[in-house]
Queue: 2 jobs
Job 1
Amino acid sequence: MFTPQKKERLGDKLYGQILQQIVSGVLREGDRLPSENQMCQSFNVSRPVVRQALVRLQADGLVASRQGAGTFVQKRPPEGLTRFAEPSDVSEMLRCLELRMAVESQAAALAALRRTSSELKDIENALSAIEAEMKTGNLPVSADFAFHYAVAAASGNVLFPQVLQTLNDLIERGMTVALSLTREGTPERARRVFDEHYAIFQAIERRDVQSAELAMRYHLDRLRQRVTDSHRDR
Amino acid sequence: MFTPQKKERLGDKLYGQILQQIVSGVLREGDRLPSENQMCQSFNVSRPVVRQALVRLQADGLVASRQGAGTFVQKRPPEGLTRFAEPSDVSEMLRCLELRMAVESQAAALAALRRTSSELKDIENALSAIEAEMKTGNLPVSADFAFHYAVAAASGNVLFPQVLQTLNDLIERGMTVALSLTREGTPERARRVFDEHYAIFQAIERRDVQSAELAMRYHLDRLRQRVTDSHRDR
Amino acid sequence: MFTPQKKERLGDKLYGQILQQIVSGVLREGDRLPSENQMCQSFNVSRPVVRQALVRLQADGLVASRQGAGTFVQKRPPEGLTRFAEPSDVSEMLRCLELRMAVESQAAALAALRRTSSELKDIENALSAIEAEMKTGNLPVSADFAFHYAVAAASGNVLFPQVLQTLNDLIERGMTVALSLTREGTPERARRVFDEHYAIFQAIERRDVQSAELAMRYHLDRLRQRVTDSHRDR
Amino acid sequence: MFTPQKKERLGDKLYGQILQQIVSGVLREGDRLPSENQMCQSFNVSRPVVRQALVRLQADGLVASRQGAGTFVQKRPPEGLTRFAEPSDVSEMLRCLELRMAVESQAAALAALRRTSSELKDIENALSAIEAEMKTGNLPVSADFAFHYAVAAASGNVLFPQVLQTLNDLIERGMTVALSLTREGTPERARRVFDEHYAIFQAIERRDVQSAELAMRYHLDRLRQRVTDSHRDR
């Protein structure tokens, strides 16, 4: 269902090319991007495709445009971003994260309100699986998806887990990148990622609607920062 | 993609039967519902099906359960709700509204941030179509869907309109009920419905992120109240 | 306690002078404001005072600055704004509204959660008083304050009404302007203002936390728009 | 200005006495509190005073009431809570935190939007002072207050820092408790507290409105949990 159309696909490809240049250091923080016209020519794409790429690069905080002055590189993502993912996939992964932010924060709030004991148990089991996988050094991709799915399923609204199911492939690709970056990082960083999941579980356990929404939103926001900003996590 | 499974379908049917009894006055505000056991027997369904129906009746504010004392009718929806919709469809329509609340409020915020002039024009055209249809006494169902779709499309994230597209049928059925209730109501009520759409447009026009999110959220919250509470709109 | 310091007072005075020029049409939508240097000279104030005025004019949406190009008039408030209020008071009134937005939306959510029957009765009484005053053509300033105070008092946290009490004078001055503009407007507009209060009451009555927060936030957001934008309400 | 009145003072005293019994283990998780009547008699206070104490114990998540069945102990705060604070002060400290949540999350969002370079520098300096104090083993109470004050001051609305100033004494007493609990905890816990402040600073630095609001809200929510729930932080 959720398949990108042609404009998106070409825009995503161009996004990936510019991303690659930022990650590799060809374009540095503060550098100005070529003009829209120049990009149309040098990448041989139409103006809507260039705009599509620029809107997303800006949405993801990688570039910023200043009225009249052009578009400038704003921050440099960790180099692992283009090593663990196809550069042309990154734009779609971040669009997906933007939708997840809206859907899953509301799902977490509803889960705190309506979850049954057995739904809570499902969330807890997925949390334990994440911890176990992390200890063995595996990437807990399917455990991570299972965790988020279990929270959505506890919302008492079957449409929430259905949206996640539809995005399954895209979500797991994003998790693979984020968890790969985490595995390469410090033990503290891995701990933080686990803590964020634990905080979501705890808030749903004690039926704290506000905390549950907040903890989910915070987790996804940090996730976004981890994959887009190399200065982010120490 | 988003098709309800068996437990949901049976739960939705039972939901519809109880809803019918509340709307028709067989069950009145304050009345206690039969116990879960009794419902299993008299409707010949399993306990998970009964629970599914009760979770949603409670989510939609039609009943409330008091620990140890049972489940009681909380409010009576307008009788048009079961006249303009199949009673067994209502539960799914309200689940859909819950998801829309999450998705569309975020889409409106992003639209205020990123919309282009031509995307704004699409929103404005849909708004004019709603107004024109209302004047002729038609139900502006497809104009209403076009409005919400245009806002989602202006979010700069193709996944937002795609979610709406996937839910198209369900959303339009919900709009048919709400707009039919509105057409039967006072001119003031119709005016209010139009005003809510106008406020969303205006906030996106002046790039006011906070107002846009708020106006969309408010609109969908009022919509939910209009279809579930007969005392709601005067 | 909350008395503006010297920088604020001078900035507010300058804000009022620029506001006056926008309202009277000396400065029109799209016009560029003089540079910071020019303003320092022509108004004989220091640069921090000019900045203080510009930050607030921008915060209130009256001007917008474009990097490298200067600061431009963005929208024109209704002329009643400077007729019903001292121009040099307007900045402070809008700062106050910004704080109220944060404090009162949370207070409304907590009131929905914790209000007692007698606290609900206080809110309802204030609502009736607003309606009665509106009918006689009086400005319901003290009834309006009483309504907002009663909501804050129902939050189960005495600090919320105490903040409103501290801001009492400032809030009532803001209400006087907004209600005077409303009294001059169409009957529909007065109706809308009443409806917004009624929606807050109803959500608190049925203990709907999400709706209560939303209804309060929406009301204060519309209020802000009514006093700052002459195109706003028809 | 913000001085509790008699009902609050007596309610806070009773709150402190019940809190003491929960912390010391006289009342255990799951135990039922005496009835309102019994409390009136045994503590020799009026019913509104008992209600005031119960509303707040429930608001703070320490007890929960089940309709018809009474009020039960819900969770046990860390024993440091009554060692580092006067038990009769705890209720007021938590009320203050509830107001801070509303005010400071909005202030952080506005700071991300409007902060100047010198205001950002003030936030960074306070952050460095927190880190330095933590390293020497001192309680960074005034650096912590300075950090939150600097964020509020960067909001471009002088009322936000003024509210914090008014609550200065209460806020610092709360910080003393929380930071004392942190100092007794694991190094990881201290790290987490610092990280939360760092995340707020970073979001304001890169002008990310959504992240800044979220990071402040998350920090204050965790703070609340740390002081009210002994199971909270490992």
Job 2
Amino acid sequence: MERPIGVFDSGVGGLTVVKQLNKILPDEQLIYFGDTARIPYGTKSKRLIQQFALEDALFLLQFNIKFLVVACNTASSSALEILKERLHIPVVGVVEPGAQAAVERTRNKKIGVIGTSATIGSSSYTKSILKLMPDAQVLGRPCPLLVPLVEEGWLDGEVTRLTLKKYLAPLMEQKVDTIILGCTHYPLLEPTIQDILGPDVSLIDSGKETARVVKETLMSLKLVNSGGKPGADLYFVSDSARQFAEVGSRFLGRPLENVQRIDFDEFLIKNSDAPLLKNFEVLYDE
Amino acid sequence: MERPIGVFDSGVGGLTVVKQLNKILPDEQLIYFGDTARIPYGTKSKRLIQQFALEDALFLLQFNIKFLVVACNTASSSALEILKERLHIPVVGVVEPGAQAAVERTRNKKIGVIGTSATIGSSSYTKSILKLMPDAQVLGRPCPLLVPLVEEGWLDGEVTRLTLKKYLAPLMEQKVDTIILGCTHYPLLEPTIQDILGPDVSLIDSGKETARVVKETLMSLKLVNSGGKPGADLYFVSDSARQFAEVGSRFLGRPLENVQRIDFDEFLIKNSDAPLLKNFEVLYDE
């Protein structure tokens, strides 16, 4: 089935998922949206993240996508249910695949999760893990400085190591044997984190696990594209395309092409009557 | 003149300016808008910052404000000209007052500026300083990690000190004798920064200087309110009011009341025909 797969994230982080998707699903065309005008999502409220996620999905639906990947831990944690309810195509987020992998990997049933404040505050990973392994102990730790550190390019060095040690200390004290990298920025810190934790702690890259689940789901729904790739992947962003291409190539591990900026406010104004965004009565968390 | 003063910022940082305004203009009512749904501005493009600033101003104009304070270094650096061109009320930003104070304070004419990537990239402080002191040497240093550190509440401690030392090293090597805190978050780091630099380097708090300039301008334009304060200050935000009140009280040094969340997307859709936002032909920097 030649229709493309839609992927969205608040910014560049989701490109770590794109990288994995390209690897294991080389014949699928991807349409990516990075909401760089409103990045980050991880410090914002649940209500707002749900609104943003619906708007991002509406943008991608224009391309007749057959499948939606929420390549953002924050949006997967706070908005996956509402997306599944409102969209008529299959939706996969990064939380469940990461939780599944952690449950398969742990030996002592003590699992740590690191992520943004919104992701950890939502307890999404904890809920997913406990569904699969009710006697697991799950320890979440919000790490709001890690995204800015990655975007500054400080992937190693004293500041990053000290920050990581401070964030990871409570997880190490509780002797977790598995830690989920619950943010698509964190795989870039994986070597430093592994070095700090030592070889006995397993790290789970949710993005990598998600790509695997996307492939399985496409196969079971008979949505896999059997011909060659129908067109190049397209990337859309709500702020500067140049800046996204520069930072994004670090995440993708190769130069980024086909990046276009769109005026997202204009898009929303034009689509203010879209049923997808209507009757949005989720209670505001305040 | 009883009409209120409008103040906007991308988030809570502008409250450091509010604190100073309340101190020296106790009879003026302030209407504050913090665009917390789209914070931060400092990592975003010039074109987008200009658009956001016009939208923020449009929101405040509803309250019949007599004066606009751009309490955000990033917006002052990238959008002050367009705001002055398009609004029919006086507009003051934080850059010129900070530059003025630095020029008065320096003895060796070597001035450092720290701020967000957008503020430093715009060279706004350099241009303002050179207008006043053409033979000054100005050294700008973007410090993208400082805002997240302040918001995490890590105002001192090893991580913050190491980060500051790394950022400040090039300024210290060049022997600047004055450094402008070119971001409204940075006054919370002032004691730590002063401790690292030692007593021979003067720190300029742009917010404090701006409040002084606002008072002078109001007086010269005969816009000062001579009666008592006509009403309590009001605070509007585009994301969670609770979260803003919590973090904001740290910036203001007292509990924050009268905070209301507004749906900014809805506001923009309703006002999509506003002339202020039209014919916005600034070239996109890409």
